[in-house]
Design goal:
The structure holds two protein chains of two kinds. By secondary structure, chain A is an alpha+beta fold. Helices cover 29% and strands 29% of the residues of chain A. Chain A has a four-stranded antiparallel sheet with strand order 2-3-1-4, covered by helices on one side. Chain B folds into four domains: 202 residues, no CATH class; 80 residues, Calcium-transporting ATPase, cytoplasmic transduction domain A (Distorted Sandwich), CATH 2.70.150.10; 144 residues, HAD superfamily/HAD-like (Rossmann fold, 3-Layer(aba) Sandwich); 120 residues, Calcium-transporting ATPase, cytoplasmic domain N (3-Layer(aba) Sandwich), CATH 3.40.1110. The chains are: A alpha+beta, B alpha+beta.
Chain lengths: 75, 618
């Protein structure tokens, strides 16, 4: 399991949050319990299994929704 | 293509606005209906593209968002050939989103200003001894870093060479420079005002105090209270419910216009954004003023506090004994003070330090034949005189006669909560010093403010003797004060307040030896001097151990809760007024509905922004 923090563009609508939350949780290899979308900080924090999914795939899921990923940290 | 549309949402809004203006212009000046409709159809088509795209993405992840409602409404308007409404509604929706983004950024400005203080680069010592600039992520624990005047200190560490003064406002909220020399601790995110220092990294990145503060504030701003979670759940079912309602209205009344108007009126914008906006602005205000509020749950509990329980030492008092009262007997006092200082200089008793500080510069003598009398004091020979320094028991042992005045002074000093230091020269009392912990300056006024803000009981619990406790309590005008209390007895006292008296209790302590009480109370408030323990175990942290932030914290919590209630009231009120207007009058149509909605969203954001400027009025 790795821990990722993704800095997104400024989020403005609470429903964006719901969209991102649903989309990320639907990805295989992402620990559903760990997903935390921070509205005001415009960040997504989650744990994922690097054998099942890459960080690039997670980023793509978010950019496909139309939100820019500005910076990603994986630990 | 889809991403291109979303990225240029603002340009699309502008274009659609221009087209609408052109359309109306051609209608009014030339009376050209075809051009008018053409322009508005274009405007609506442009405008609806990003909205429909967002709606599609939302539906794909099974979310019925506001975009879905608006898209259906606009399509409906097209269907009944009301292009005017379709164009204006989409334009208002896009323009509103643009304004929301701009104003929301303002409410987040306080925390943003904080994160921008994060250091980005560091001068790291290489193997050859030269310093090279690297990204702060590349610094590891144990690295030696060079910090020059005006630069940010990149890590938590200690100074190994050089000296300078540091502005620690980002950690403590206090901008007075702090002197640093070899061995001093320095913190990431603070700024070296002058001097040059070399620092060894003890903690880096998110592990630094500054990193923890940022993480904490970020999570606090997004933490959800019970009320907020309720609104979230509500919004989740509310939006689909609006859709269903519109469908039912259409099925029964067969009036498509009415049905799509309901879709627009039902948008829950202000309701879902009102509470987070108050939260982010309020908690941001706290962070700027040296108060860390850990989330909206904490804010709501703090606003309801009835009883505040204080630790004494280090919280209400400075936590360091000083000479508070002095009496001299006879003459040659200067010389006696020199003897006293010479004896005290050789002792490591805590009172000795206070005595030395009070005497200051004086003439020191060689001290001979020192004899430490356990629990009483010291006897020694200085300059041929027999000097006895200690408590009353030592004076009795030394057969020192106390005059009636001296005995009265001793009684008075003791009543005022002092520990006594008596000095006798050759069996004659010369100096009487009263040493006690000093009350923090300004605490009295701060406590008065707390009472004014509605705190009913102010209670002090201390491990100190009852006499000292009573003296402090009298001076501060507390409701209750109890001495001789162990940490677990304090915790039991708080438990009783909560369980038997049903009080909402806050505990204020230094966060070191009071963790059971901090944890038990509804609100644990730590006087944090930038220590991790305090930051992690408590609900509220007063940075820099500054007691005067406490009234600000309480006032702010009350203001945030008030602000949230106003926002909820405003949001719900607007929906009711619009629905009533739709049912009982004819001034409400889609465009008016959208306009009022966007207006109410901006209103709750502006209302939230007032919290950024909140200050406790004195």
């Amino acid at each position: 399991m790795k821990k990722a923090t993704l800095q997104l563009e400024t989020l403005t609508c609470p429903s964006c949050l719901q969209k991102i939350d649903h989309a990320v949780k639907a990805l295989p290899g992402v620990d559903k319990e760990s997903v935390n979308v921070l509205f005001n900080a415009s960040k997504v924090k989650l744990n994922f299994d690097e054998e099942k999914i890459t960080i690039d795939q997670i980023e793509k899921a978010i950019t496909d929704l139309g939100y820019e990923v500005k910076k990603t940290q994986v630990k | 293509m889809p991403r291109y549309i979303l990225r240029n949402k603002n340009k699309i809004a502008l274009m659609s606005g221009v087209l609408i203006a052109l359309g109306f212009l051609s209608k009014w000046t030339m009376g050209n209906q075809v051009l008018f409709e053409g322009a508005l159809i274009m405007a609506a088509l442009f405008g609806v593209a990003p909205v429909a795209l967002q709606a599609y993405q939302a539906l794909r992840v099974k979310v019925v968002s506001i975009d879905v409602l608006v898209t259906i409404a606009v399509l409906g308007a097209f269907f009944i050939r009301n292009f005017e409404e379709a164009a204006i509604v989409t334009f208002l929706f896009l323009f509103g989103a643009f304004l929301e983004q701009r104003t929301l950024n303002k409410t987040r400005s306080a925390i943003k200003a904080l994160t921008e203080l994060a250091p980005e680069s560091a001068l790291k010592r290489q193997e050859d001894g030269a310093f090279v600039e690297v990204e702060v992520d590349e610094v590891a624990v144990g690295d030696v870093l060079l910090v020059k005047t005006g630069a940010k200190i990149p890590v938590d560490g200690h100074v190994v060479a050089g000296e300078g003064s540091v502005n620690e406002a980002s950690i403590t909220g206090e901008s007075l420079p702090v002197a640093k020399e070899k061995g001093s601790k320095v913190y990431a995110g603070t700024i070296l005002d002058n001097g040059t220092i070399q620092v060894v990294a003890d903690r880096v990145g998110e592990d630094t105090t500054f990193g923890k503060i940022i993480e904490l504030v970020e999570e606090a701003q997004d933490s959800k209270s019970v009320a907020e979670r309720f609104i979230d759940r509500f919004a989740k079912y509310y939006t689909p419910a609006v859709l269903v309602l519109a469908l039912i209205v259409w099925l029964f009344s067969r009036r498509l216009e009415l049905a799509i108007t309901i879709l627009v009126l039902g948008c829950p914008g202000a309701l879902v954004i009102g509470v987070p906006v108050s939260n982010v602005a309020g908690i941001g205000n706290g962070a700027k003023h040296g108060v860390l509020l850990k989330g909206s749950e904490v804010v709501s509990a703090l606003s309801r506090v009835q009883t505040m329980v204080f630790d004494k030492t280090g919280t209400l008092t400075v936590g360091k004994p000083v000479v508070a009262e002095t009496e001299y007997y006879g003459d040659n006092i200067e010389e006696v003070l020199g003897y006293l200082a010479s004896v005290e200089r050789e002792s490591d008793h805590p009172l000795a330090k206070a005595v030395l500080e009070a005497i200051g510069a004086t003439e020191f003598w060689p001290v001979e034949a020192t004899e430490v009398v356990k629990g009483a004091g010291i006897v020694a020979r200085v300059n041929g005189h027999r000097i006895a320094v200690g408590n009353v028991a030592l004076m009795e042992r030394e057969k020192v006669e106390l005059s009636a005045k001296a005995r009265a002074d001793v009684a008075r000093f003791e009543k005022n909560g002092n520990s006594l230091v008596l000095t006798a020269v050759n069996g004659e009392l010369k100096v009487l010093l009263g040493v006690r912990d000093r009350i923090r300056p300004g605490v009295q006024a701060d406590l008065r403010r707390l009472k004014k803000l509605g705190v009913e009981n102010l209670v002090m619990l201390s491990g100190d003797n009852q006499g000292t406790v009573d003296a402090v309590s009298r001076e501060l005008g507390l409701t209750e004060a109890h001495g001789h209390m162990l940490p677990e007895e304090k915790a039991a006292y708080i438990k009783r307040l909560i369980e038997e008296e049903g009080q909402v209790v806050a505990f204020v302590g230094d966060g070191v030896n009071d963790s059971p009480s901090l944890a038990l109370a509804h609100i644990g408030i730590a006087m944090g001097g930038g220590t991790d323990v305090a930051i992690e175990t408590s609900d509220v942290v007063l940075m820099n151990s500054d007691f005067s932030r406490l009234p600000h914290a309480l006032g702010l919590a009350k203001a945030i809760v008030r602000n949230m209630k106003q926002n909820i009231f405003l949001a719900v009120g607007v929906v009711f007024v619009l629905l009533a207007g739709l049912l009982f009058s004819d001034w409400v149509n889609m465009s008016v509905g959208m306009l009022v909605h966007e207006g109410s969203i901006l209103a709750v954001i502006f209302n939230g922004m007032r919290l950024l400027r909140y200050r406790l009025s004195s």
